[in-house]
Write a structure and sequence with these properties.
249 residues; Flavin_trans-like; phosphopantothenoylcysteine decarboxylase activity; Rossmann fold; 9 helices; alpha/beta; coenzyme a biosynthesis
Amino acid sequence: MVAGAIRRAEPPFVAADYANDGKHHVLLAASGSVATIKIPNIVEALSAHPNISIRLVFTKSAINFLAGQSHEQPHVDTLRSFPNVEGIYEDEDEWAHPWTRGAAILHIELRRWAHVMLIAPLSANTLAKIVGGLSDNLLTSVVRAWDTTGEVEASTEGAVTGQAQIVKPKTIMVAPAMNTAMWRHRITAKQISILEDEWGVGKDGDEPGWFEVLVPMKKELACGDVGDGAMKDWREIVQVMESRLGLST
């Protein structure tokens, strides 16, 4: 949380309350990268669709880039003013309300609610956490709890309807953003390979994947280096999301 900012704890959130709202549920997350400043652009573009619902998740590092520094970096709370933005969450919201048995758990409810998750930007650190299976904040907890086979949601729906269900795993789209040397590092190559080749949507094999990587572009980075590693242009990210959801432009 940035100094001087006032936290607003979201009310307890239960995914089932929104199961039949007829909207595309987009869980938009940002991790610690300068490219977080493009989140307002992405939100504004997506929120123009009346049949979309957006909830945002920020890591502690990401939220520091939206603290009202400039017009390009408005305070994160200003994102609430966009149409169809229905919640903004940070780590402290996970246990903002004393938990009792049977109560909702935020990272599970967000996973249940989302039809698709977009992490833009995905930092080198969060990439490493995801591939390593760490879940030390709200964002990585949602990813770690993702239903990677569709079997969990299938069994839940089957219990409700009394009929066997076949549910494909929902997609996590990621837009990496990091320094050129970090992007070209052999460790990064191995980690991206896991997302694309082992977990990727459209991979070979019987089991459908659940990850889609939006490859970075080449440009002058905020640090002054010139090369690949910059997050894919936010307009292209929006276009991919619109295409995947079948939204008209």
